[in-house]
Amino acid sequence: MLSDDIKEQIRQAYAKIIAAKTLSPRWGQRQMIAEIANTLGRIPSATARAKPDAPAVCVIEAGTGTGKTIAYAVTAIPLAQALGKRLVVATATVALQEQFVNKDLPDIRHHSGLEFSYTLAKGRRRYVCLSKLDRLLAGAGGGDILPLYPDEFQAPQAAEALPVYSSMVEALARGEWDGDRDQWPGQVPEEIWAGATTDHSQCSGRRCPNIAQCSFFRARDELQYADVIVANHDLVLADLALGGGAILSAPEDSIYIFDEGHHLPDKALSHFSSFCRLHTTGQWLQESRKLLAQAAPALAPLTELRRTLESLPGIMDETQAALQVAEQAVATLFAERPPGSGRGDDQQLRFAHGLVPPSLQPLATGLVAQFQQLTGGLGRVEKRLEEALEEDDVGIDKSELETWHLTLGGLLGRAEATLALWLEYAVTGEGEVPPKARWITLLDGGGQFGFDLRCSPILAADILQEFLWSRAAGVVITSATVTALNSFERFILHSGVPREANFKVVTSPFDYSRATLQVPAMSCDPGDAEAHTAELVAQLPQLLDHTEASLVLFSSRRQMQEVYQGLRDALGELILIQGDGSKQEILRQHREAIDAGRGSIIFGLASFAEGVDLPGDYCRHVVIAKIPFAVPDSPIEAGLAEWVESQGRNAFMEISVPDAALRLVQASGRLLRTEQDSGRVTLMDRRIVTRRYGQAILDSLPPFQRLLPRQGGSR
């Protein structure tokens, strides 16, 4: 229950931070504080026996400028402390994570009067593995430790990698570096870093001889004593996928706050999907067989493993042969695929309703049996090696034993991940509610070859119910964009958040009358792509002020590039186009031009429509080329639409329109970033006034002044 003492502590903390920072109390912040306090107040104390009437979950849409960080921090921190729970704050990106822990939390602790500790949490792959470094530099395993996914990371050249690894070891020894990739001075190429880090399948944990110096475990140990753990969505979901409590505190002992929480469902789907690249998995099995041939004599003193080690190469040969048969079957499916079964570029084959073709299912069943044999054998070997690391004398050098443990752990991890995919293809898919998306992509370019098989849920609702909503002590979801068409239904559908949760919309304190929304008169709409592009080229020189900062957002890379080519003579010197440099570099050049008194125009895609902060003179005009309906090439989105249609419902109105409305709100949100900002949003898409769904989208946008064309259309 929410005691009077806790209420007073929250009130005092908020009052102190507002006074110390000479801020004006915001009604939206007070609403957030009340909503979070009432929600988390449902969490029973450690001695309580009765379960709460409703889950301790709230979803809060807090408009830009609300000051949500202060609101959730001053409320959740004292409540978590009083309940004996760990507060886990998850941001959408590592960059936001570091801002929160390096700037926001120190500031809140300093000014609010709250006493709390906090630390930053990152996954294993953000830290160097000292055992791997030792072996790479000693030449005792650089070629023996097979990467988990060699098809994703090309092995670095020794002449390039070894000096970097030596520098890392020296910096660790001098105490000048803590093993965190983000703290290393300078950039490390991905392939070099991949060779020096590990994941849970290759890590021997507390049995590792380097455990006392392990960067990851030292960072993880700090998590046990912190009141607040700052993570990102990916790390929280990775921990939940491992059962919870593997890296962070157990869900039952945690209160989670997901900032930018509208990303949570999509992030969850990526963590609970499976895949297998046929050609490179076959290559991996071939290389693994060679390694196991070396392992048998090296591990001969462990006599109980002899039979298993001798059998594994044969199992790998049989598995590789079965994969080749499956690859031939997939090639046949591609050759015989019906029109419209995938993307327009003919590189994809999506199975309607997620149903596995009869020709592929029995092959998948056979591969399940093969990979079960493989994972069973590798699991027995890996477990015995882990035990041997703690034994005094097993007749094998400890360093060599550790090398083989890393290697076999990596083989087991890859085999288990591949087994997960074939389990999904060994079923018909009939009766799944909702169905899963299953598809195959032809890889033919960029160094990739063969077929990539994938399976993913189309909604994260069941996943999050099983791993988060039903287990966590409390959850707060907050973002500036959670609702679509002024409703939480879209988020409920995708996330499965309990309907008994608290839902709240906190409006922005910004004065939207300082900005206008304009829809110019146009002779065509984006349905005629060529004509629409030509009209953009014709109108933009007059719409854009050459002396100010503008952001032009496109839904199609092809259209963006065609418009750029059409405007090179008129506006070429002012335009910074996505793809000509990193996002950070484009934003830097843009700000530099504005600071110098020049105009600047950014041409960008979806990544510039969210998370870009260009306050004041850095952005006075946002142009949106068209209503951002999703490009219909995602098998997950296609599978969801197909499922909705199969129930006699309208997927366009239920899925496409709410999704587009949400993206349009995010894009238009690039304009006003502070209470003093002003400017205009121009939408180059007359469908918002001519189509019957247009009014619903208009009504979901911020209350800008509107300049709309007078033209008819069905409502």
SSE layout and pairing:
Elements: H1 4-20, H2 27-40, E1 57-62, H3 68-83, E2 86-91, H4 94-112, E3 118-120, H5 130-138, H6 158-173, H7 190-196, H8 215-223, E4 228-232, H9 233-241, E5 254-259, H10 264-271, E6 274-277, H11 278-298, H12 306-335, E7 348-350, H13 361-388, H14 398-425, E8 436-445, E9 448-457, H15 461-469, E10 474-479, H16 489-495, E11 502-506, E12 515-518, H17 529-543, E13 549-553, H18 557-571, E14 575-577, H19 583-595, E15 600-604, E16 621-624, H20 635-646, H21 651-668, E17 679-683, H22 687-690, H23 694-700, E18 705-707
Parallel strand pairs: 1-10, 1-11, 2-4, 2-5, 3-4, 5-10, 12-17, 12-18, 13-15, 13-16, 14-15, 16-17
Antiparallel strand pairs: 6-9, 7-8, 8-9
Helix pairs in contact: 1-3, 2-3, 3-4, 5-6, 9-10, 11-12, 11-14, 12-13, 13-14, 15-16, 17-18, 20-21
**For the largest beta sheet, what order do the strands appear in spatially?**
3-4-2-5-10-1-11
Shape, principal axes of CA atoms:
globular
Low-confidence stretches: 140-146
Give the number of DSSP strands. Answer: 18
Regarding CATH, which class of the largest domain?
A: Alpha Beta
CATH superfamily name of the largest domain? Answer: P-loop containing nucleotide triphosphate hydrolases
Distance between the termini: 49 Å
Oligomer: single chain
Descriptive report:
- The chain has 715 residues and is an alpha/beta fold.
- It has four domains: 4-117 and 226-269 and 460-506, P-loop containing nucleotide triphosphate hydrolases (Rossmann fold); 124-219, no CATH class; 273-457, no CATH class; 512-707, Rossmann fold, CATH 3.40.50.
- It is 46% helix and 13% strand.
- It has a seven-stranded parallel β-sheet, sandwiched between helices.
- Strand 14 (575-577), helix 19 (583-595) and strand 15 form a beta-alpha-beta unit.
- Mean pLDDT is 91; it is low at 140-146.
- It is an enzyme of class 5 (isomerase).
- It catalyses: ATP + H2O = ADP + phosphate + H(+).
- Residues 15-309 form the Helicase ATP-binding domain.
- It comes from Kineobactrum sediminis.
